[in-house]
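Appendix B. Raw example, untouched.
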Amino acid sequence: MNKSTPKTILIQGQDYLDLRQAITELWQAQAVAEIISTSDVEHVDPITLQSAVRGIAQFVEKSVMTLEEIGVRTQIEEMGAKNEQ
């Protein structure tokens, strides 16, 4: 198995702001999930519960898409830097 050393990358500008937003949204999703998991959901209106779960899914989906976009841009920048060498 090929073990490679982890690389440190510098994230700045809009990517940094997008990363911070994605992290914030993931924490919000976690907070809503925590509230649901510690609540007595038997007495919650099913539509309200379904809306909360959809909200969690939206937070997670948007955050994952943002993280993927940042990853792709970072890979493209790395490939460009390698080609310049």
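End of appendix B.
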